[in-house]
Structures are given as structure tokens and as C-alpha cells.
TrEMBL record:
InterPro entries membership: AOX (IPR002680), AOX_sf (IPR038659)
PANTHER family: ALTERNATIVE OXIDASE
Source species of the chain: Chytriomyces confervae
Molecular function in Gene Ontology: alternative oxidase activity; metal ion binding
Keywords: Electron transport, Iron, Membrane, Metal-binding, Mitochondrion, Mitochondrion inner membrane, Oxidoreductase, Respiratory chain, Transit peptide, Transmembrane, Transmembrane helix, Transport
One BP annotation, GO: alternative respiration
Binding site for Fe cation 2: 177, 228, 282, 285
Keyword Transcription regulation: no
Binding-site residues, Fe cation 1: 138, 177, 180, 282
Protein name stated in the entry: Alternative oxidase
Length: 305
């Protein structure tokens, strides 16, 4: 846990360049220059700004990079050492809230394992089974952060008071889980039955989690913490299957472009690298939610800077 807290703190202190205000200012400046160039070409054909190469190729490339990155919320980008150091951890169950949260996760996991044919044994799961499990898992994992962020946003408006930094962290988590889904969707095209199952599950889970969050936010964050522990366990076994099981080709198969962009992976990154990055994200969510579950509703978010 300490490693991931340190990772998050370091990442928050040194965000990639495109998250800094100077990056956004550069984008706006370049956009303004392009607009001025087009306007000048229309009104005054011989004006210096109408010259075709008024912006250099590097300027235009910089603008494209900034535009592509501008819509993505902050998320950690990991070093190879941090990815390798990610491991499964479990927070001891203490008290009634922890017991309720952990029991619900165990119940959900049992049903999910049964419905997806999941097993912890290496070499049994096929690529299709892994993708079914991962894609379905991420459709569920993206719900809690959005529900919690929305609920706290409305609470802040309703009570006319600050939220103390929780909303951003929760929305970052929700988007991060959605990016996991979009990445693995590049490897799988779900059929009609799968999509209907997702639709039904989301309808039930969203509303149930929303009601529970209204009643006991801290229990819900503890639930997510335990749920993410389970996710780390799943992705660890997936990495083992890549090494020794029936999906060894993920160790050489090229990573989707969306993953290379989002996690700033190298040009030759593989699906295995993506799985390792996703596991690190889940470990980050695990530690974050366990800490949020230990705070009072009005305490400042320690991850907000």
C-alpha cells in the first residue's frame, strides 16, 4: 500500500506536461494562432499571417498532442519498477461495516466466477473467457467512482459548501476504469446477449450503489477497496496465464493504440504491458478507497492537491 501511496503522491507532484496549465495555455495560444492565420488568409491574402507555413510542423504536432491529451483526466503513469512491484494485499476486516462490505464482495465474486467459468488454475482459461471476464468486470468497476462523485457533487450544491477535493479523485477513478474497458474492447466485440447482461447489471448495480452511498458512504468505499483487492488478484493471475497459460501470445501481441497513449507506453508495448498497467491502476484504487473509507465525510481528501 505504501508503494502505491508514494506513487500517487509522486505522480501528483510531477504530472505530465500536458496536465500543467502551461500546456493548456500553449494549446490555446496555438489554436488562436491558427484561427488568426485562417482569418488573415481570407481578409488579406498577402498578409504575413496568410503564409502557408506560418506555423511550423513541430508547432502543429504539439497542438495535436495537446488536444489529444486535454480531455483525459489525471492518472498515474508507472515506471517498470512500479509495475513489477505491484502485488495483492488485503486489509483485515474489522467492525460491522468492513464485514458487510467484504461479505458483499465475496458474494459478488462467487456469482461472477460461476457465470464466467473463472478458475485460479493456470492454463485453464481461454482468451475468450479472459476477455469476457475483464470486459464485464470493467463495466461494473466504472460505476462506483461516478456514483460517488455525482452524489458528493450534488451534496456540495445542496449544502452550499466545499467538497474538499473528493469529487476529482472519484471522477478520475471512474474515467480510469472506463479507459480500461475501452482498451479491452479493442480485443473483443461483445454480442447481443453480453450487451443485454451488461445493461441489466448496470441498472441494478448503479441504483443499489447509489442508495447505499446515501446511507453509508464509508461502507461503500470499503466495499470498493475490497472489490479492487479482488481485481488485483484477477489481473495477477492473468499475468501468470500470459507467462504459463493459454494466452502467451498476449506477451507479444501489440498493445492497442489507445493504451499506448493513455499509459504513455512505448511504441513496442504489448497486451501484457497493458494488463500490468491496469493491475497497477486497480491497486491504486484499492489503496485510495480504503483510505477514503477511514475518513469522515467532511475530512479533506489527502490525495487532492
Amino acid at each position: 500500500m505504501l508503494m502505491h501511496l508514494t506513487t500517487r503522491a509522486r505522480a501528483l507532484a510531477s504530472r505530465p506536461a500536458f496536465y500543467h496549465a502551461v500546456g493548456l495555455q500553449s494549446l490555446r495560444r496555438l489554436q488562436s494562432t491558427l484561427a488568426d492565420t485562417a482569418r488573415a488568409a481570407t481578409l488579406v491574402p498577402n498578409h504575413p499571417k496568410a503564409v502557408k507555413d506560418a506555423l511550423t510542423v513541430s508547432d502543429q504536432a504539439q497542438m495535436k498532442d495537446l488536444k489529444n491529451a486535454d480531455y483525459v483526466l489525471f492518472h498515474p503513469v508507472y515506471t517498470p519498477e512500479e509495475l513489477a512491484a505491484t502485488s495483492y494485499t488485503h486489509r483485515s476486516v474489522t467492525g460491522i461495516r468492513d464485514s458487510i462490505a467484504y461479505s458483499l464482495v465475496r458474494l459478488m465474486r462467487f456469482g461472477f466466477d460461476f457465470s464466467t467459468g473463472y478458475t485460479d488454475k493456470v492454463g485453464i482459461m481461454t482468451e475468450r473467457q479472459w476477455l469476457n471476464r475483464i470486459v464485464f468486470l470493467e463495466t461494473v468497476a466504472g460505476v462506483p467512482g461516478m456514483v460517488a462523485g455525482m452524489t458528493r457533487h450534488m451534496r456540495s450544491l445542496r449544502l452550499l459548501k466545499r467538497d474538499y477535493g473528493w469529487i476529482h479523485t472519484l471522477l478520475e477513478e471512474a474515467e480510469n476504469e472506463r479507459m480500461h474497458l475501452l482498451t479491452f474492447m479493442k480485443l473483443k466485440n461483445p454480442g447481443a446477449l453480453f450487451r443485454l447482461t451488461v445493461l441489466f447489471t448496470q441498472g441494478v448495480f448503479f441504483n443499489a450503489y447509489f442508495l447505499c452511498y446515501l446511507l453509508s458512504p464509508m461502507t461503500c468505499h470499503r466495499f470498493v477497496g475490497y472489490l479492487e483487492e479482488s481485481a488485483v488478484h484477477t489481473y495477477t493471475l492473468c499475468l501468470n496465464d500470459i507467462e504459463h497459460g493459454r494466452i502467451k501470445h498476449w506477451g507479444t501481441q501489440a498493445a492497442p493504440d489507445i493504451a499506448k497513449f493513455y499509459w504513455r507506453l512505448g511504441e513496442h508495448a504489448t497486451v501484457k504491458d497493458v494488463v500490468a498497467a491496469v493491475r497497477a491502476d486497480e491497486a491504486d484504487h484499492r489503496d485510495t478507497n480504503h483510505i477514503l473509507a477511514s475518513l469522515k465525510v467532511d475530512e479533506p481528501n489527502p490525495f487532492a492537491k
